[in-house]
Amino acid sequence: MTNITLVLGDITEQSVDAVVNAANSSLLGGGGVDGAIHRRGGPDILDECRDLRGSRYGKGLPAGQAVATTAGRLPARWVIHTVGPVFSATEDRSATLASCYRASLRVADELGARTVAFPAVSTGVYRWPLDDAARIALTTARDTDTSVTEVRFVLFDQRAYDAFETALNELPPA
Ligand code: APR
């Protein structure tokens, strides 16, 4: 049974087995969560990302997929990089956003990670409305069969935390 928890804080401070990064397809860093993870985690993370670009992901990591690297100096063992979809008002990309969570949990299972911290993927630079992103994230985490025992959503501000808390309370029965 996976325990879903909500935390108001900084994902780079979470002592978990795996921290999920809201990356972009280049895997070569950015702002937001991506910037914080690389800044705090140090160059080893980027080195492994560059290796991935030089091998399995020559064209970059597609949206909805996930891949792991070392966590460098973070209080975690791995970073699982996933690429969220950019929000579109005309095209429903919900399945791709759900895939970020499902694929990240599958990678966590492959690693043997039991505790995983997620940010609110796509809700920053990629402009996904928080309440809808929270619903997709929580529904997917609850409905995905995984050996992960704790899925921890780490929200960076009170507005995001409140959106996730509301969505968690309103989750329809499985
Ligand atoms: N810890 C937890 N959450 C954070 C942190 C942090 N240190 N920093 C930012 N966030 C929150 C944001 O407030 C937002 O709610 O993470 C959520 C995702 O925002 P972004 O990091 O902007 O990610 P996303 O919207 O998925 O856009 C990804 O942004 O940083 C670039 O390289 C990244 O191109 C990619 C794009």
From TrEMBL:
Coiled coil: none annotated. InterPro entries: Macro_dom, Macro_dom-like. It comes from the Bacteria. Gene3D superfamilies: Leucine Aminopeptidase, subunit E, domain 1. PROSITE patterns: MACRO (PS51154). SMART domains: A1pp. Residues 1-172 form the Macro domain. CDD domains: Macro_OAADPr_deacetylase (cd02908). It holds the Pfam family Macro. NCBIfam families: PRK00431.1-6 (NF001664). This is Appr-1-p processing domain protein. It comes from Streptomyces iranensis.
